[in-house]
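Narrative of accomplishments. A recurring question from our advisory board has been how the design workflow behaves on a single, concrete structure rather than in aggregate. To address it, we present the structure tokens for one chain from the evaluation set, followed by the sequence designed for it. No filtering or post-editing was applied between the two.
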């Protein structure tokens, strides 16, 4: 069990990442290759990842370089997920290259003591070996994660919308409530399922919540408590459509494609909306709005999640693409 101890100042300083962290997603996706848990949630990804890795001649690199360094265990090195990655993949990889040699060796030593490290891992203290690792991480990301980036970003935006509404509805505590089945808020402590028993005291620093597409089950945080606190946690997953059904991408107006009321409902979902808000936006009853939302959800254009006593609807990547394709002006 992980217990994260908050003060009032910590709650005020708690943020939700605006974009997926590319290095955390690399590490979490490597864990997906090491477990069968949750495979249904990543069915589309699994269907293509293996073939893309083979085509890019990355299978051996995955097996001998990446997987041994990021085991699905109690620990993997913190230097692989630097905070600079919040600025993008390039910034994160540069930070890995700039990590002091003594820190790399200390963390490789911790990996050896906890999960076992490959013999070559000590060579990561040298620049050449770290450059090889960084190049492998970049190629891996471009091959199996970047093709899914639009869908991943849409899921993160939906989660941010849910967190924002939770704060508006329940105050600052709302940001850490209902984060998922493995996280439980009991003021002033956030309890998380974790492979080891530990306490993390924020001491006024706040924490960055990083919703992750590839994280499954237990959340993850830095082993080194001196680093800025981060909690990397799993998004909820539901089956989704990945292609536009029928002629929805034809460029015809939304009203012609969906009908005027349903088009209004879809536009209302653009920034996240409850069923009641959709009813007011479209000028229909709540029951009618619910029926239209169900039809849009069945078409793969929106997703719906229970949020307190209401249901929050957000766009899928498919729905967002349809709105963009039917919005006048510069794209």
């Amino acid at each position: 069990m992980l217990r994260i101890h908050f003060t009032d100042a910590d709650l005020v300083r708690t943020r939700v990442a605006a974009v997926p962290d590319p290095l955390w997603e690399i590490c979490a996706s490597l864990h997906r290759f090491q477990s069968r848990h949750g495979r249904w949630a990543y069915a589309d990804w699994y269907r293509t990842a293996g073939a893309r890795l083979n085509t890019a001649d990355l299978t051996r690199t995955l097996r001998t370089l990446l997987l041994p360094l990021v085991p699905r265990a109690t620990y993997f090195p913190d230097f692989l997920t630097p905070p600079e990655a919040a600025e993008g993949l390039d910034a994160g990889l540069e930070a890995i290259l700039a990590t002091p040699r003594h820190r790399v060796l200390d963390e490789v030593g911790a990996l050896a003591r906890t999960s076992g490290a490959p013999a070559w891992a000590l060579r990561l203290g040298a620049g050449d070996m770290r450059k090889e690792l960084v190049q492998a991480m970049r190629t891996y990301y471009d091959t199996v994660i970047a093709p899914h980036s639009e869908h991943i970003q849409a899921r993160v935006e939906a989660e941010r919308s849910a967190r924002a509404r939770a704060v508006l509805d329940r105050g600052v505590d709302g940001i850490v409530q209902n984060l998922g089945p493995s996280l439980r808020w009991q003021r002033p402590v956030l309890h998380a399922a974790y492979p080891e028993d530990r306490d993390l005291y924020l001491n006024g620093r706040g924490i960055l919540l990083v919703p992750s597409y590839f994280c499954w089950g237990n959340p993850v945080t830095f082993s080194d408590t001196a680093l800025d606190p981060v909690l990397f946690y799993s998004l909820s997953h539901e089956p989704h459509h990945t292609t536009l059904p029928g002629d929805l991408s034809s460029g015809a107006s939304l009203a012609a494609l969906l009908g005027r009321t349903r088009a209004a409902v879809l536009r209302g979902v653009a920034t996240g909306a409850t069923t009641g808000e959709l009813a007011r936006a479209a000028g229909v009853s709540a029951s009618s709005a619910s029926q239209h939302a169900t039809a849009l959800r069945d078409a793969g254009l929106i997703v719906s999640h229970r949020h307190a006593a209401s249901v929050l609807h957000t766009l899928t990547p498919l729905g967002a693409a349809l709105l963009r394709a039917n919005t006048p002006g510069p794209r």
